[in-house]
Amino acid sequence: MDLAALCSFLVSLRVFPSRVQFFQYESVYLSCGDETNASEWTIMRNTTRHKNQKNPAQVKSRWYFNSNLYYKDAGVYWCQSEDGQCGAVVNVSVTAGDVILESPPLPVTEGHTVTLRCIWNPDKPRTEGTFEFFKDGSCVGNSSSGNLTIPSASHSDSGLYTCSHQGALSAESPLHVLKTAGSPPQLSDSPASVLSSVILIVALPVAAVTVATAALVCVVLVCVRKKKKKKRRKESEQCDALYVNVMRFSRRTAKMKQLKGKKNK
Fold first, then answer.
1. pTM to 2 decimals?
2. What are the beta bridge partners of residue 184?
3. pLDDT tens digits for range 92-112
4. DSSP characters for 40-63?
5. 100, 171 contact by CB (below 8 A)
6. Whether the Cβ atoms of residue 142 and residue 133 lie closer than 8 Å to each other
7. What is the pLDDT of residues 116-163, one digit of tens each?
8. Strand pairing of 21-23 and 90-95?
């Protein structure tokens, strides 16, 4: 089950340096809360080798890796109190590769300046060249200094970022940009969603007109049919009346001939 579903986010785990990707044997410092309530929290982690492991240090709210961070230490870290309350989780990755991406370990709010740094492993030889940055697999910029700055971050800047240099690619690092309170609602960033909305807006009036036209045609057809039926009934009645008159005339003529014949005799 997702930890976020079980915890109330009261305290955020602080990471120094402020990133989630690290090279092996780096020095990393993790802490919970501030000086006033630090004793109430314990740093927990889930890794490939440990499940819900508590900080083994004497001060539970601080975890320090003194140049001994190893790949087995990669995993999810968070702060948790004795009654089960916990802060937002931080996914720490450790690599022995050539390049990592530095990005904010926790969500940032809209309007803030965000700087992404592509860092080359200091223990590996490096030649001059550009650093390329990618968001969700698409290139979003390049830099000779290794820095990519987003001056005023917006919610649309959220995504999975990577960087590359000299053919080496970093791991993915998520960037979460939270909407500020009172920000106007936005349409979905997906072109398909926008197109669907436009089609819906156009299709509804067209459908309404089509239905109304079909109803009118049906009414006209019914009226014409009734009129034709009424006309046929009237013609039938006229024919019946004519037939009766003809029959009466024929009988009268035959009777007159019969009387005339008797008179001549």
1. 0.62
2. none
3. 999 999 999 999 988 899 999
4. GEEEEEEESS-SSEEP-SSSTTEE
5. yes
6. yes
7. 999 999 988 887 889 999 999 999 999 999 999 999 999 999 999 999
8. parallel
